[in-house]
Amino acid sequence: MTAPPDPLLQDLHDPLTRIRDAFVAQDGLIYLCGNSLGQLPVATRGRMADAVEAEWGRSLVRGWNSHDWIGLPHRVGDAIAGLVGAAPGEVIVADSTSANLFKLAVAAMQARPDRKVVLSEPGDFPTDLYMLEGAIRTLGGDRRLVLRAPEEIEAALTEEVAVLVLCHVHYKTAALRDMARLTKAAHAVGALVIWDLSHSAGVVEVDLNGCDADMAVGCGYKYLNGGPGAPGFLFVAARHQASLVSPLSGWMGHAAPFTFVDDYQPAPGVARFACGTPPILSLIALEAGVALSAAAGAPAIAAKARALGDLFIARVGDRAGDALTLISPADGAARGGHVAFRHPDAYAIVQALIARGVVGDFRDPDVMRFGLSPLPLSFAEVARAADLLVEVVATRAYDDPAYKVRAKVT
Amino acid sequence: MTAPPDPLLQDLHDPLTRIRDAFVAQDGLIYLCGNSLGQLPVATRGRMADAVEAEWGRSLVRGWNSHDWIGLPHRVGDAIAGLVGAAPGEVIVADSTSANLFKLAVAAMQARPDRKVVLSEPGDFPTDLYMLEGAIRTLGGDRRLVLRAPEEIEAALTEEVAVLVLCHVHYKTAALRDMARLTKAAHAVGALVIWDLSHSAGVVEVDLNGCDADMAVGCGYKYLNGGPGAPGFLFVAARHQASLVSPLSGWMGHAAPFTFVDDYQPAPGVARFACGTPPILSLIALEAGVALSAAAGAPAIAAKARALGDLFIARVGDRAGDALTLISPADGAARGGHVAFRHPDAYAIVQALIARGVVGDFRDPDVMRFGLSPLPLSFAEVARAADLLVEVVATRAYDDPAYKVRAKVT
Questions:
Q1: Structural domain boundaries in chain B
Q2: B410/A135 touch (CB, cutoff 8 Å), yes or no
Q3: Four-CA torsion B61, B62, B68, B73, nearest 10 degrees
Q4: CA-based torsion, B153, B157, B160, B165: positive or negative
Q5: How far is Cα B250 from Cα B100, in angstroms, rounded to an integer?
Q6: pLDDT single digits (tens) B299-342
Q7: Of A185, A351, B96, B206, which residue has the fewest beta carbons closer than 10 angstroms?
Q8: How would CATH label the architecture of B46-295?
Q9: How far apart are CA B283 and CA B231, in angstroms?
Q10: How far off is chain A from B363, nearest CA to CA, in Å?
Q11: A280 vs B contacts (CB less than 8 Å)
Q12: Same topology for domains A7-31+297-404 and A46-295, yes or no?
C-alpha cells in the first residue's frame, strides 16, 4: 500500500490554489456541502450590488437592452457549454433543473411517438423520477416509466425505449455513469438519452459532444456556485434542435418574442427551450459563479476534484473502524465530486463534525456525504476533515446525546 | 365639463405619499414603465446585500432552515394573497407566470377530461396563448384552443369548455375584465377559469375569493416591484387544491421532499404546484417588493392608481389633437393601472418623451403605454408627464429624425 499523499505538497503544486481566494473565506469552517450549495464568490457580492443598484435601480426596464439581460440565458449557457463539452448555442440557462427535465422528456417522447418506455434507474435524485412521472401522466397514452438498476440498464434498452434518463453522477454514492457507453447503447436501439449533470457539471469531466449526447439538464447552485436556487441549464445537441419542440412554449422561446403575435413559432436553436421571463438577479449571480469555473478550466477542475477525493478516501482508510463503510467508488475515474460513507450513526457523526467545524451532510437513513468542491477547498482542509471524521468515529464522539437531536434536514 | 383635479392638492391628500420615499429616487426621471418593470425599493438594496453576504455567504446550505428559504415561496405567496383577495395557503410563488399557467391549464383540462375546448381571447399578452398551445399539444387528444373577442366570450361558454383563460387587465389597452361576472358565467356551464393577474395584482382591486375564482397566475416584477424577472405566483382556491395535480410534479411540490423516495406524492395544499428549487435571491427581492404593497394595502393602492389614471386622461384631454387616441377605458372602474394611446408616430413620441425625462413604452405598431405605478409616483409627476405628452404631440416635437431610429424594444 502506498502512503497517502502529503496534502501540503499537493497544495504547493495545485495550479488552482490561487482561485481559492476568489471565494469568501469561511472562518474556521471546512465546508463540504459544495455539492449541495456552492460557496459565495467574492466577485458575486459586488456584482449583485451593481445588478441591484445600477442595473435594476437606474436602468430600470431599459436594462433588458442596455445590460443585455435578454442575452444572459445564452451568455451563461455558452459559458457552461465550455465546461461540459458542448458547443456555443447548445446550452441555455432557464427555469429549474426539474422543469428543464420535463421539457426535454416530453420533447423526446414526442420525437419517438411509437415507443412507450421511459427508462431510468431507481433511487437516484428523486425529482427526476417525479418529473418523468408528470411528463408521462401529461402525455398520456400507454407510456410508462421503467426503472432498472444501473447494471441492468443496458439489457433493458430495447426498441420500446423512447428515452433513457440518467444522472451522470449519483447524488448519494457519487458513482459516475459511463456516458459514452450508455449513450452508444441507447442509440443502437434508436433511443434518445437525457443526462442530468447536476452532480457532474463543474466538477468532473463531461464531454457531451464527444459522447454524442442528445440532451442534458443541470443545476447552477452546486459546483457552479451560482447561489441558492440558481436557475438550471439544459443542453440540446445542435443536430436535434430543429426537430424538438418544448411543451413549455413560452414567449422567451418564441422566434420573435417582441412582435407579440398570437401564434407560437419556436425560435431557432436552443432558445426554443426557454419559457417565461428569467429571474435576472439569480441569473447574474450564476454568471459570476460560472465565470470562476470557466477561468479555472474543466480539465484542471476535474483533476483537482479527483485528487481531493482520492486524498480524502486514502486519509480515512481503515482508521475509523469497520462501521464506517465507503459507498462511493474508490476509483477516482468512476467517482463524482463527493465522497459518501455509510454508518449506523451517520446523523450524529455529521452533527459532531459540524461542532468541529466540518460541514458535511446527512441523507436518510445512514449516509453522510462530503462534497469536495475543487475551487474553494485546499488539500490541507480536506485532509483535516478526513482526520476529524476518523477521530469522531474512532472515539465515538458522536455518542454525545446533543448530536442525536434531529432537526429538519434539507 | 369639470376642471381636471389639481395634482398638488391630490399629493397633499394622498395617504400613500410617504411610501414614495421607500423607492430609490429617479433623478429627473418620470418612470412610467412600472407596468413592465417596477422600481427598486430602497429596502431591497440592503436586503439583497444581506441575502448574498450573510445568508448565502455565511449560512451556506444551512440557510434553507436558518433563514427559512424553504418557506419563502409560501411566505411571499401569503403576502400576495392578501393583495388579491385570497386566503393564506392559496397562493404560492414559483417558476414564471408562463410555467405557472401551463401547470394550471393542464390541471384544469385533466379535471374536465370530457371537455375539449380551452377558451381565451386573441390579442392579449401572447405568452399565455403560447403556453395554452403547448399545454394542449402536450395533453393531446382532440383538445383545441378557441379564441373569441371579449364581447363574445360569454356566448362562447358552452359545455364543451373545460377552462376559460383570461387576463384580468389587458396588457395593451388596460381594459379590465369583469372577474365576478365571467367567472359566474363559466361556472354556469361547468367550466373552470384561470385569471392572469399580471397587470392587475398590486394595482387594481382583485377579489379572487369574492368572485369565487378557481385559479390564477400573476407576475412579480410589475406592480409588485420584485425586480427583473422576479418569479411568478399562482393561486388555487382551497376547494380545488386536493383534486388538482400539477404536471410539473417536482420535488418542491412533494408531500415529503426530503425523504427522497422514488414515487411522487403531491403535497397537500397549494404547495403541490411548486416544482424545482426556487431562485432564492430573486425571491428575496420579490419579498421586499411585495412588503411595500402589503404595507400600503390593496384598497389604498387601487384608489390611488385609479385617481392617477383619471388625472392623466383628464389632463391630456383633447389638448393634443385628434391624432392621439385614447385606447384605454376612460372609466376608471373599467381600467387597469396603465393608460394607452394610439398615434401613427407612437414610436417617435415615446422617444421624444424619453429625451424629456418621461419613460413610457411603445408597442408595435402604434401604441404607447404609460404605467402609473401608485406607490412610487406622485400626482404632480403624472400631471407633468401628461403635459409633456401634450406638448410633444401638439408641437410635433416627435418629428425630429433622431426619434425615429428604431432600437430593439423589449
A1: 7-31+297-404, 46-295
A2: no
A3: 20
A4: positive
A5: 13
A6: 999 999 999 999 999 999 999 999 999 999 999 999 999 999 99
A7: A185
A8: 3-Layer(aba) Sandwich (3.40)
A9: 7
A10: 8
A11: 227-229, 282
A12: no
Can you list the alpha helix ranges (DSSP code H) found in B82-209? Answer: 97-111, 126-139, 153-156, 179-188
Separation of alpha carbons A262 and A94, rounded Å: 23
pLDDT digits (tens, 9 = 90+) for A335-394: 999 999 999 999 999 999 999 999 999 998 999 999 999 999 999 999 999 999 999 999
Provide the H-helix boundaries in B30-81: 42-50, 63-66, 72-81
User: From start to end of B168-277, where are the E strands?
Assistant: 192-196, 215-218, 233-236
Taking the whole predicted model, whether its pTM rises above 0.90 is answered as yes
Query: What residues of chain A lie within 8 A of the CB of B351, using their CB?
Result: none
CA–CA separation, B28 vs B23, rounded Å? 14
> Which chain B residues touch A24 with a CB distance below 8 Å?
53, 57
A162 and A108 in contact (C-beta within 8 Å)?
yes
Active-site residue among B75, B222, B272, B304? B222
What is the CB neighbour count within 10 angstroms for residue A87?
A: 14
Q: Is B404 a catalytic residue?
A: no
Please give the Cα distance from A61 to B373 (Å, whole number): 14
Determine which one of B171, B221, B235, B341 is catalytic.
Answer: B221
Measure the CA–CA gap between A93 and A219, rounded to whole angstroms: 9
CATH code of the region A7-31+297-404: 3.90.1150.10
* Strand partners of residue B236: B215
Asked if the interface predicted TM-score (ipTM) of this complex is over 0.95, the answer is yes
